Amino acid sequence: MFLKGGKAGAEGAGAEFSFIGPEVVVTGNVETPGRLHVDGRIVGDLRCGVLSQGESGAVIGNIVAGEARLAGLVDGAVEAGSLSLEGTAKVTGDILYESVGIARGAEVEGRLKRRRSGADGSSAARGEAASPKPAAGRVAELFAPPEAEAAE
């Protein structure tokens, strides 16, 4: 079920809060500038201002968010300014972040890379000048070996 709540504070100021309940399966991309809580399943890419994922939540696709707290399953690349992985989180894919917290018990199968400036995708996670390239392509480029090493 999709629900909209009150106005959000902090980074999502003025944005609505949306909820995808545990009985919902969304097939396709989801995008909102505001806050989103996911207890259901999304099969597609997800882009939002602030993401909160419950233990029963699953995203089979790439995530781009300004802030993200993950507690469920993610099968895809994750790009977030501030990322928190709860002890029940299971991420299969590369992670690009500015700040990260990983709780004991969280599982990550992939590489982690810290974002340092707007040149490596920071503006996209904040919703500024969104790039048409999918998150997985951007993350893959950042983890690719330098050309000098690749030629050897």
In short:
The protein is mainly beta and 152 residues long. It has helices at residues 122-125, 135-143, 147-151, and strands spanning 2-7, 16-20, 25-27, 30-38, 41-43, 46-53, 58-60, 63-70, 73-75, 78-85, 90-92, 95-102, 107-109, 112-114.
Would you kindly provide a written description of the structure presented here, covering whatever features stand out?
With 152 residues, the protein is mainly beta. It has one domain (2-151). The protein has helices spanning 122-125, 135-143, 147-151, and strands at 2-7, 16-20, 25-27, 30-38, 41-43, 46-53, 58-60, 63-70, 73-75, 78-85, 90-92, 95-102, 107-109, 112-114. The strands form two sheets. It has an eight-stranded mixed beta sheet. Strands 3-5-7-9-11-13 form a six-stranded parallel beta sheet, with no helix packed on it. A hairpin with an 8-residue loop joins strand 1 and strand 2 (16-20). The longest helix has 9 residues, at 135-143. The protein is globular, with a radius of gyration of 15 Å. It starts with a strand and ends with a helix. 34% of the residues are buried. Mean pLDDT is 82; it is low at 6-13 and 128-133.
